[in-house]
Every structure is written in structure tokens, then in C-alpha cells.
Amino acid sequence: MTTALTAPEGADTAWPGPPPGADPLPGQLDRWLATRGAELVAIRRHIHAHPEPSHSEFETAALVARELTVAGLSPRMLPRGNGVICDIGEGDRAVAFRADLDALPLQDLKDVPYRSTVDKLAHACGHDVHTTVILGLGLALAQLNERGELPGRVRLIFQPAEEAIPSGAPEVIEAGGLKEVAAIYGLHCYPQLPAGLIGVRSGPFTAAADTVEVKLAGPGGHTARPHLTADLVYALGRVITEVPMLLSRRIDPRAGVSLVWGAVHAGQAFNAIPGRGELCGTVRALSRDAWRDAPELVTRLVHEVVAPTGAEVEVNYRRGVPPVINDRMATAIIAGAAGAALGADHVVEAELSMGGEDFSFYLEHVPGSMIRLGTAVPGSDVRHDLHQGDFTVDESCIGHGVRVMVHTALAALSSGAF
Residues in the chain with pLDDT < 70? Predict the structure, then answer.
């Protein structure tokens, strides 16, 4: 896997500068972006064309490590070689920035020269952009550090397996990724905002996301004699309709708990009551306390609902990720930095999302904040949504992301808040 560092065909070598009235970046970052923007686009396109699945991001991690090494840094690989950690500068405590490396098991449907070369695997969630932005942050900070203009230590985290369960954040934490880290920041592509806009939000940002599987069993029988058996289809129907309703009445509605079923399987014949059936779905929550209580409560409700039907029941509740709850001070710092980087009118309030993000595992240990990076073409009504085969971005978002993250690093190191 090699990286083409020349400007890709069609790339805009005139990298977008800050809007009129925005503060200039320290260390002539504007000039740096103007000279290296096309190189960052080339890196993003290479990663996009060579996606790797969760837990197997070996070549992508190696690419990141090579680029950081060329910049004079000393990256270290995660124990399995599928992720990278790299410190820049000096200081007792570090401010960390996280990117995710993995792709999704989807077919890339775009007709572009850098379309995925791997069948049924694509960067349809923007992790190629996340990686490029944090890599660009590192390369820019390396130059600042060489000139003695970096007022502290910054840690870059390139983690595997954000899209998988189990995910890669705990792997990074176990490898010491948060050792001596005072705060952590991340970003996520957001096609509902045009490139050049940043979405910020303090408090709940994304939901916890768990999975639940319900298995029912009974003797089976003829549909003419349901009283002689356990009617599993009826029992499944009760679980489908009653458990979400009961759950909403047992938890404070402000906790944002949602149980939605995604699949149900039972039987094959119209006149035979099946002996087995199963149901699976997701449980999401915006509250940490509600998320911690959910496994016991959901399991108890399922058993209570099934009991009158006479069916045997097994509940397999599987933890996914906690909710992302952005720290107030960390959010204030990145919001201010985004305003300084792009102009205050380019910073908007981000919406709550019921999607899951394993950035939340880091926030269980240290304060931090995640933002949304606008990726849509400005002025266009077309929205290429996440987790779809045609997902694409306006590549100017890379420069905007680098600009915001460099400002955030300098602001966080200088604030004394962490």
C-alpha cells in the first residue's frame, strides 16, 4: 500500500482559506494548508480506495505511521498493529485527538477514480476523512513543535473498529492510550451540514447502543388447537408491542430510552404453531444511568410479558457503547476554536443523535467533546447520507477540519482547564 503524494487529478490545489474576519492561525497554518491541502486529499482518496474492515486496519495504520515518521514524529503501533498512537510536544499531561480507521461492509456505488477497490467494503461513514483530518493535525503540529510554538503535548489516536462490537476504543484504552491524557476531542462527518460548518453540542450528543435478542421455545402444535401448546407467534407479538411500551413507563422519559425491534423469525407453515421463535433489536439511551439499568430492566420486562403465554424464554442482552456526553468545558473550548478558525457564523448547534459512537468509552475516563464536520456541497440540496453506498463528501471539509482541530489543540493547551 503506497501513498500518492502528488495532487490528484481534479483536486483543488488552492486550499480554502479562512472566511473574512476569521483570526489567522498561529505558525502560518494558512500557508501550510495552502501548500499541503492537495496532499491531504490524495491521502484521503488512497484510504478511500483501500478500505479495511474492523479489527484488520493494518495497512491503513501503517500508512498513518509512515506519514507521521516522515514528519519527524515517533508513532507507536497498537499491540495488534491495527492502530497508532503518537505524541507531539512535551508536557506532563496531553490533549488527545481521536480518529477511526475502519470501513463498513457496504458496496461502494460511486463512479469516481478513487472508488473502493475492495468488494463489499467502503468508507461510507467518513472514517477516511476523520483519519486524514487528524493526520493533517499531526503534520501541522509537528512543524509548530519544531519551531517551539506548541505549548504542551498533543496525542493522536488512530483507533481500529469503531463500527464493530466489541469496538476498538477499549483496545486503545487497555494499551495505555489515555495514560496522562487530560482531555480528548473527536469529530464525525455530517452530511446534513454543508462543508465549512461545524456542529457543536454540550451534554448528550449520541446515544448508548446495545442489542437484545429474545428466544422463545415451546412444544409447537396445530393452529386449530392453540390451547394445547404455547402460541409462540402470539407471544412474540406481545413482546414486540408491550415491552417497548412498558419500558417507556418504567424510565424517566428525559433519559431518551428507545427499544426498536429489527428482526423477527418464527415458523414456516400457515397452519402450524412453531416450536421456536426469535426476536432482536436495539436499545438506545441518552442517559448514562438509564443505560446502566437497561439490561436488568429489559430482561425482567420480557420475562413478565412472556410468562402468561407458557413459552420458555431466553434473553441475551449485549452491551454495545455508552452514550457520548460532551463535557461542558471541553465543548466550550472546541466551539471557541471553531469560531476562531472558520468564523463564529460557521459554528452551529448540533442535533442530538440516537446513533452510537464508541468515542463514548474515552469519555467514561476523561472529559472531552465530539463535533460534527459538515461535508455536503455548499448550496446543494443533495445529501449523501452516512452508511449508504453512495456516501461522498465535499473534500474542502478536510481543510476545515484540520483548521478547527489545530485551533482546538492550541486553545486546550493554553487554557489551563485540564
Answer: 1-27
